[in-house]
């Protein structure tokens, strides 16, 4: 089991996370929903030390790490075990698709280059982009770049993958391919936490849905619980607003 415990984070006088705790069991696909500014992305960034939490712990396979005071060695250890997929892809502009995937294996995991390249090519074939292995990010579409970002995460054999709105930067016609790939990752059984605005995808792929607002978890449960039987008024209003917007986009 992986858990975040009592995470708090403020930027100046603005409290963004207010004592957030969350459990992620083996094989879980946890989708976090909520309005902009609710703390969803900040929570993911605190888990992977892209932001330093003010308080809180990360429990990962019986090891408890202080999210505020962890030392560099502990942070590097977490990043070896917890992969992050960015909404803006986060690829190295000066490295090819294959090099973007193998960099973490070679530098962080000390995998021999030949072995890393072999694994990188296998992952590229798995995501349908082996023919793009020598292409640089600028030569790839947004959807292809995001698929490389996901391939890079999977190549590390992580204990958890964090997805920060993985389709938000994509043109609508490219979203489907990326969501299909995330479905394939889910079938591997790797625990995942996904921040997304894709409601139908959330209902399909998640086994746990978390609704955040105002820096707290308002409620959580199965997709059926949250989408069809929400208990909290804030959850109901958010879902009504989002689903109305989706219908408006569909009929334009």
Helix content: 40-55%
Strand order in the largest sheet: 6-7-8-3-9-10
Count of DSSP helices? Answer: 9
Task: Assign an overall shape.
Answer: globular
Largest sheet: 6 strands, mixed
What fraction of residues sit in β-strands?
A: 15-25%
Condensed summary:
By secondary structure, the protein is of the alpha/beta class. 42% of the residues lie in helices and 24% in strands. Helix 3 packs parallel to helix 5, helix 4 packs across helix 5 and helix 5 runs parallel beside helix 6.
Can you characterise this structure?
With 252 residues, the chain is of the alpha/beta class. Helices cover 42% and strands 24% of the residues. The chain has nine helices and ten strands. It has a six-stranded mixed beta sheet with strand order 6-7-8-3-9-10, with helices on both faces. A hairpin with a 2-residue loop joins strand 1 (2-11) and strand 2 (14-24). Helix 3 packs parallel to helix 5 (142-155). The N and C termini lie far apart (44 Å). Mean pLDDT is 93; it is low at 248-252.
Write the layout of secondary structure elements.
Blueprint: E1 2-11, E2 14-24, E3 29-33, H1 40-47, E4 55-60, E5 63-66, H2 72-81, E6 82-85, H3 97-107, H4 113-126, H5 142-155, E7 160-164, H6 172-187, E8 192-195, H7 199-205, E9 208-213, E10 216-221, H8 223-228, H9 233-251
Parallel strand pairs: 3-8, 3-9, 6-7, 7-8
Antiparallel strand pairs: 1-2, 1-4, 4-5, 9-10
Helix pairs in contact: 3-4, 3-5, 4-5, 5-6
